[in-house]
Task: inverse folding
């Protein structure tokens, strides 16, 4: 995959001037929470330039704040409008699935797929085959735990479960009804009927491209919608899928070095989600410095805006979006005035993003390294208020929550023509 590299002026090269007011508040909050002072870090930017805070260059564990950087890398390489295209080839009662490593290929999308195939008259396949890029994880849309182990065997098992509706458990039937009830009228059938005799993974497509094969495409929404859902719900599975798709740890390090000149003394990622990685019994956590995270969040903003969107299209907006902010309380007038990503691990609690103030836009981060997560979150909430007030108070931006639709749509014409997102194609797609 070819990437156009770019270089940002590093914000960490600005002189860091301490703010007596914010530093005093920070010290008071950290001491009140009884957190080890030297292990904590906060930082923010002045709208007219300059980085301030404490322990700006301390390497801190990021936890799920890592997803902001994964979002940046994804947008730079793939683009906000990138869509995952899952190709289906049907002939003589057989189905071959050519995947695209769609990270949201879970229950919701598979149920939709079954409904669409029923609508097209298909109720049985003699054999279903799939390639290495077709990756199914039933809980893809709701996953927030550790990275699952997925193999061709687990995928085949899941496909047999999906496509043999006569053996669906009560839980699967209830889950299908849940998804169907949330779909727009006419989008999904109330019940589906399907059976399959064999399921097998293959390295290639068993059908020759010159054969008379029915070809169908299941399109995802734009990548920007995937990233928004990933960040709002802190979906670890989706973040890790993106990270691996882009090349994993080695390619990420190259990307950071060539674009930002950040080596491992400043930043290191082992996962796209922020979950720790165990190698030969040793735990490794993603880390960065507070000042470097400000640079990367600014880069995410710039990259997003150059592609026609805003930072709030990618990152959660507390007060409007729910997700990991369901139980976080901020002043009422802060609603729609800042974006944020949370992070929590056994010994880490983090918060970072950007705030819209009367002085202008400010990037900020609060990184607490402690097992006392409750007290750490109180410090973060207090510092958001301190920084917002330091910069003149909140200035709300226009924002409206949009529901997440994992099925996607190509454009209005296609929806009107085909009445679904499942597009039949007479010839090769590309």
Result:
């Amino acid at each position: 995959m070819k990437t156009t590299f770019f270089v940002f002026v590093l914000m960490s090269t600005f002189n860091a001037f301490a703010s007596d007011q914010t530093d005093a508040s920070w010290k008071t909050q950290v001491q009140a929470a009884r957190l080890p002072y030297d292990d904590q870090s906060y930082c923010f930017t002045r709208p007219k330039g300059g980085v301030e805070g404490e322990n700006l260059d301390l390497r801190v564990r990021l936890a799920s704040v890592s997803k902001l950087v994964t979002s940046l890398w994804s947008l730079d390489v793939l683009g906000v409008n990138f869509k995952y295209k899952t190709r289906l080839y049907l002939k003589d009662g057989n189905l071959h699935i050519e995947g695209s490593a769609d990270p949201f290929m879970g229950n919701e999308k598979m149920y939709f797929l079954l409904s669409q195939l029923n609508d097209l008259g298909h109720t049985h396949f003699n054999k279903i085959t799939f390639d290495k890029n077709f990756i199914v994880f039933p809980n893809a849309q709701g996953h927030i735990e550790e990275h699952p182990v997925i193999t061709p065997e687990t995928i085949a098992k899941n496909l047999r479960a999906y496509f043999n509706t006569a053996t669906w458990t009560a839980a699967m039937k209830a889950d299908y009804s849940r998804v169907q009830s949330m779909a727009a009228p006419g989008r999904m059938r109330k019940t589906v009927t399907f059976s399959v005799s064999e399921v097998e993974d293959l390295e290639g497509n068993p059908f020759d491209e010159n054969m008379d094969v029915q070809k169908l495409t299941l399109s995802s929404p734009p990548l920007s919608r995937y990233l928004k859902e990933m960040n709002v719900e802190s979906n670890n599975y989706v973040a890790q899928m993106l990270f691996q798709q882009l090349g994993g740890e080695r390619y990420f390090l190259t990307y950071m070095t060539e674009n930002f000149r950040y080596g491992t003394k400043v930043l290191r990622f082992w996962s796209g989600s922020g979950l720790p990685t165990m190698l030969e019994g040793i735990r490794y956590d993603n880390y960065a410095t507070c000042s470097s995270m400000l640079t990367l969040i600014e880069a995410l903003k710039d990259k997003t805006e150059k592609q026609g969107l805003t930072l709030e299209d990618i990152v959660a907006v507390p007060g409007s979006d729910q997700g990991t902010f369901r139980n976080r309380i901020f002043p009422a007038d802060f609603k729609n005035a800042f974006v944020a990503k949370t992070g929590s691990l056994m010994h880490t609690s983090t918060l970072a993003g950007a705030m819209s103030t009367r002085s202008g836009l400010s990037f900020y981060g609060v990184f607490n390294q402690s097992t006392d997560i409750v007290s750490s979150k109180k410090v973060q909430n207090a510092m958001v208020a301190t920084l917002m007030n330091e910069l003149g108070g909140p200035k709300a931006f226009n924002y409206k929550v949009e529901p997440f639709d994992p099925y996607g749509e190509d454009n209005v014409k296609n929806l009107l023509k085909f009445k679904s997102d499942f597009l039949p194609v007479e010839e090769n797609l590309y």
Summary: The chain is about 30% helix and 20% strand. Residues 74 and 246 are 7 Å apart (CA to CA). The domain at 11-80+225-390 is CATH 3.40.710.10 (Beta-lactamase).
